[in-house]
Amino acid sequence: MTVSEIVEKRGNNRENLLQILHDIQDSSGDNSIHREAIGELAKIMDITTADITGTLSFYTMFSMEPRGRHLIRLCDSPPCYIMGSENILDALQKKLGIKIGETTPDKAFTLEASSCLGTCGVAPAMMIDDEVYGNLTADKVSKIIDSIAKDGVKKPEGI
Ligand code: FES
Q: How far, in Å, is the centroid of ligand 1 from the Cα of 75?
């Protein structure tokens, strides 16, 4: 979908900017918002590119850098840290062969650290795209990654 089609669908109104940016990111092919799209959007909506980049930098779900098809956000805030998020980070890095901030060579996964996801009751926790995974262990992480690589975003049975 083009930027103008997205604006047309959502409505050319400042209130819809976040949804429009989500759609642009989803349609980008690399889970990011390209500079050309920002310029085009600014013209169409009659706002400045600084307004748009300001919004993008405020929300961590947006990126101007290319990312994998699936975004893994591992919580590293104190409650998750105490419950072993460092071991989960090790398990993720080993399983994916990448470090925090990197994307797998097949562009399937990008690994990021996150502050509290609001799911401390199931620490240690992570989000993959829109799905929360809690009470993580190294074994669970491996199953989750295998399941997503095979079936897309879908929780394996019992997780
Ligand atoms: S501290 Fe990790 S989800 Fe809240």
A: 6
Amino acid at 59: Y
β-sheet bridge partners, residue 109: 70
- Cα 106 to averaged position of ligand 1 atoms, centre (Å): 29
CATH of domain 70-151: 3.40.30.10
The residues of the chain that CATH labels 3.40.30.10 are 70-151
C-alpha 107, offset from chain centre: 13
Length of the chain: 159
Q: Which two tokens stand for residue 56?
A: 């993008």
Question: Ligand 1, closest atom to CA 116?
Answer: 4
Contact 142, 95 (CB under 8 A): yes
pTM of this structure:
0.80
**Which residues have CB under 6 Å of ligand 1?**
75, 77, 79-80, 116-117, 119-120, 123, 125
Q: pLDDT tens across 87-112, in order?
A: 999 999 999 999 999 999 999 999 99
